[in-house]
Amino acid sequence: MKKRSWSLLLLVCVILLAASGCGTSKPADNGGTAAGTKTTPAAEKTKELKDIKVVLDWTPNTNHTGLFAAKELGYYKDAGLNVDIIQPGSGSADTMIASGAAQFGVSYQESITQGRTQNVPLVSLAAVIQHNTSGFAAPVDRKIKSPKDFEGKKYGGWGSPVEEAVMKSIMELQGADVSKVTNINIGEADYFTAVKRDIDFAWIYYGWTGIEAELRGQPLDMLYVKDYSEKLDYYTPVIASSEKVIASDPEMVKAFMSATSKGYEYAIDHPEEAAKILLKAAPDLDEKLVVASQKWLSPRYKDDAPRWGEQKESVWKNYSDWMYERKLLDKPLDVKKAFSNDYLPEAK
């Protein structure tokens, strides 16, 4: 899954220069219409759907299954929406959402927090997963059993100041020195190639890379960051939109989130069937990995929350306070504006 870029300069510039907002103009591609289906003009008029674009944070994976399930099972269509699920291309999902290129997208609490403190009006509408499933992972032969063991090892990352801040934070709990870690920027390099060739450990999502390691027969020592501080148990990823889209068409936002919630509930209750839906949308994915990942992740979507997507103010405050204390934010976050549960369906 994609590593986050923490350079928000381009995103801020896009916001300042954007001349138009996130409307509901018809895209050139009529994605979401069933191939071969023909209707009369009168039928088209009565069944006219609102065109919506949803941009992923990276290539399709099991974080996104609920979106594909909602589309495949007709939940979006039933909500009056023609949803086109796209990949971000050269720009980030946050940039596309903020500039109006997509009405919704997959983002992270980390980037929304940093973006909002730089006047980028993104809003998180749902937590895809209730608890942070990311952490530092190393092949067992590197003998990294605790943050103390990071000392003298090579870390492969993507050059974000947040990486070192998190590493320093959990190492200090054990009296360890982050300056004794060698940082190597591996960009988008494959984890398994990197640990064989260049590094000892990296930051991964266990639900994808960790499961792949299991299937490869390559056991990992996994140090989940949430296990070392409740402030690091943040929402990653999330479904996001912009303030402009929400203000201009709140009923559409509610319809989209209701259908999306149904998609994730389906994936919770039917992991194997949901995995097949994801594979249909992204046939190049490894089938065994998708099925195994989905089985691992499905119960974690909602976990201990009263409904899928529910977000807590305390989670947003804990993490933004942590970032501000470590000078990763220019100013404190206005937490209440960063997220909303108002567009989720009521808990059953």
Write up this protein.
This protein has 348 residues and is of the alpha/beta class. The chain has 2 domains: 225 residues, D-Maltodextrin-Binding Protein, domain 2 (3-Layer(aba) Sandwich); 99 residues, D-Maltodextrin-Binding Protein, domain 2, CATH 3.40.190.10. Helices cover 41% and strands 15% of the residues. It contains 15 helices and 10 strands. The chain has a 5-stranded mixed sheet with strand order 2-1-3-10-4, with helices on both faces. A 5-stranded mixed sheet has the order 7-6-8-5-9, covered by helices on one side. The radius of gyration is 20 Å and the shape is globular. The N terminus is likely disordered.
Q: In summary, what is this structure?
A:
It contains 15 helices and 10 strands.
List keywords for this structure.
348 residues; alpha/beta; D-Maltodextrin-Binding Protein, domain 2; 41% helix; globular
Break the fold down into its secondary structure elements and pairings.
Layout: H1 9-17, H2 41-46, E1 50-55, H3 65-72, H4 75-78, E2 81-86, H5 93-99, E3 104-107, H6 109-116, E4 122-127, E5 134-139, E6 154-157, H7 161-172, E7 182-185, H8 191-197, E8 201-205, H9 206-216, E9 220-224, E10 238-242, H10 243-248, H11 250-269, H12 271-281, H13 287-302, H14 313-325, H15 335-338
Parallel strand pairs: 1-2, 1-3, 6-7, 6-8
Antiparallel strand pairs: 3-10, 4-10, 5-8, 5-9
Helix pairs in contact: 1-5, 3-11, 3-12, 9-13, 11-12, 11-13, 12-13
Keywords: Signal
Organism: Paenibacillus zeisoli
Pfam families: NMT1
